[in-house]
Structure formats: C-alpha cells, structure tokens
Amino acid sequence: MTTATAAKTQIPVHFDIVGSFLRPDRLKKAQAEFDNGEITQAELTNIQNDEIKKLVDREIDAGLRYVSDGEFRRNWWHLDTFWGFGGIKKTFGEHGYLFHDIETRKDSAQVDGKIHFTDDNPDLAAFKYLQSLIKDRDVQGRQSVPSPAQCYSELVRGEANIAALNKFYPNHDDLIKDLTTAYHDLFLALYEAGCRDIKLDDCTWGMLSDVDFWKDQNIDQKGTDELQAEYLELNNLAIQDLPEDLHITTHICRGNYASTWAATGGYAPVADKLFGEEDVESFYLEFDDDRSGDFSPLAKVPAGKNVVLGLVTSKKAELEDPQVLINRVKEASQYVPLDHLALSTQCGFASTEEGNNLTEDEQWAKIKLVVDTAEKIWH
To answer: Where are the transmembrane segments (predicted)?
Structure first.
C-alpha cells in the first residue's frame, strides 16, 4: 500500500495506527484543573502542546510514518469537531451512548443556526500545531475528522435535537448542502495548512452492520438501505472536488469507549455501498475479534483501493500472537492483494478522554507488535 509522505517521495507503508493515544496523567490533571476553573485556557494549551510534542517524537521513534497529535485536545473523538462548526452548539441529551454494559456521559451536539465552517475550527488549529512539529521530518501528519454522516446522525439523536434541526432546516436538502459545504470548507482549510491525509472516522456504518440492533428497533432492511444511501450521499458530497494530492481514507468503528463496544456484526450488510461506492482511497476496518465477522465482504472492495486490517485490538493489553496475525493477513489477501493491505490496531487507544483499559507501556507494546509483524510480512 503506497501513499505519499510529506517528504516528496513515495514510501510503501504497510503498518499504521488509527490515531488516538492514552492521555498522559499530566494532561488529565491539567484538563480537570481547567474544567474546575483552576487554570486558564492558555495554560492548558501550553501543557497540551508540550505533551503532543513528546508524543510525536515517540511516534517517530517507534517507526510510524503517519503521525497524529493523539487527539490530546479532544474530549470526544467526534463531538469536539461538531461543536467547532458555526450553527452547532454543545448540549446534553437525556442519555449518553449505550455501550455494552456501560453508558457514556450525556454530551451531544445540536443545531442552533445555519451550519457553516469558521476559521477558528479546533481541528484546523490542532493540525497547524502538528504540522509545525513535523514540517522538516520525513513523516506525514494525519488529521482524523468524524465523518459528515456521523455529524448528521448526532443532529438527529433524540427528540430535542430533531426539533432543533427542524426549526432551522425545514428543508432537508438545505441541511445536506450546508453540512457538506461546512465539511468541504474544513478539508480545504486543512489542505491549505499543509494537510495531505484526512481520515474520516465513522461509526454509522458499524451500527448499520449490526442486524440484531435494527431488528430490535423494528427497522427492516429497506429502512437501513435508505440510511446507507443517505450516509453515502453526505460523505461523498463533502469529499468531492478536493485537490488530487489530498488523501481521504475512512475508519469504520463499532464503538470504542473504556475498552468496550457498541455494535456487533460483519461488514456484509454495508459492503456494497460502503466499499463499492464511498469515494475514499483506503478503508481502516476492525477485525480484532469474532464480532467483526470474516473477510469475505472484502471481495466488494474495488481494485486499487487499500484495506488497513485492524487485527491488533486496542481494547486490552494482551498481545496477539504474531504468527496468527501473519496468517490472518494471508487469509485477507484472498480478497485484496497483499500490496493493497496494511496492518494496524483495530481502533484508537482513547476515542474519548477516559481511554481504554491499558497502560501507556502496554499501548506502545501494541504499536511495536504492529510494526514488527508488518515488517515480517512485507519485508
């Protein structure tokens, strides 16, 4: 799987990460002090900057070619981005997200005006700092952004959110236009700041893969087919007509909160639309346990597109057997050529500030396992 790096050359990279890292204790302490009014935003930002610099140095030392800021400035993998658009505000729902045996905090996002991009978007500011750390180094900075479909699904989560949406957007087509334009403008701003790699994080397709969930909601296949078409339209509209050297990929997640999950099921129910029609270069897919299903849906991935196999779980510390990983990559190569495959962790280590149930040392051991195993496969 060959993609461009910041340093003008083409380097084959067959190992990767999803992007979020466990928050260091110093950062957690500073965030709590800020939330309690004990330190200023400027003081928090200085600590974030320092911890991100340390992280990037360690990512490079670990051999990673694509680096992130660990999402150290975010509370959530998705909501902070939504709150950063004009016309969307932070709010609280009646319930948090329901994961296996756990409910999250109740934060949500709600329309309070016409949706638009603004120059003070937090994702843009975050990338600019990341780029300042790597501009003279032979690595590519990646910005992870929750997908437009994910934003839409949040704006219709709960009766209060739906009522607010209908107030400002009685015409659904106007909503689609404004939301996708806001995203498109964000992507162009990131490009102008030097970004050449944007990953769309997306739980919507993971939820659509959970056939039992939709049965419990009394929603049949026709209903989920309509949702797939809507999600596909949102994502593709936002990423159309972008510069050719801006690489757009997507990570499909089934939920990642405090080492637990939200959805289960293989990719077969969404393979035709997701793999066949979403206009991205690479699919970062979860295959770390039996909930993920088998590799057969990968037959729907078009020739020339890449699949990053999330075979190494980020949810627990136990290290996978390298030979098992090698065998599974070989199995996946029956559907996607080996040159278009890569190995990675199944998700980030801290999709929210809580993080998964690992230590930082265990997190880095997982990354070393990914890099070392990939080098054995694609030596």
So the answer is: none
User: Has residue 373 got a pLDDT over 90?
Assistant: yes
How is domain 2-377 classified at the CATH fold level? TIM Barrel (3.20.20)
Angstrom CA distances, 118 to 82, 85, 104, 301, stand at: 12, 6, 29, 35
The CA distance from 324 to 332, in Å, is: 12
Q: What is the pTM of this model?
A: 0.91
Nearest partner of 248 among 306, 288, 333, judged by Cα: 306
Q: How far apart are the first and last CA of the chain?
A: 13
**Closest alpha carbon to 249 in 352, 155, 128, 342:** 342
- The full set of domain ranges for the chain reads 2-377
- pLDDT exceeds cutoff 80 at 296: yes
Of 89, 69, 70, the closest CA to residue 79 belongs to 89
In this structure, what is the dihedral angle of CA atoms 276, 277, 282, 283, given to the nearest 10 degrees?
-70
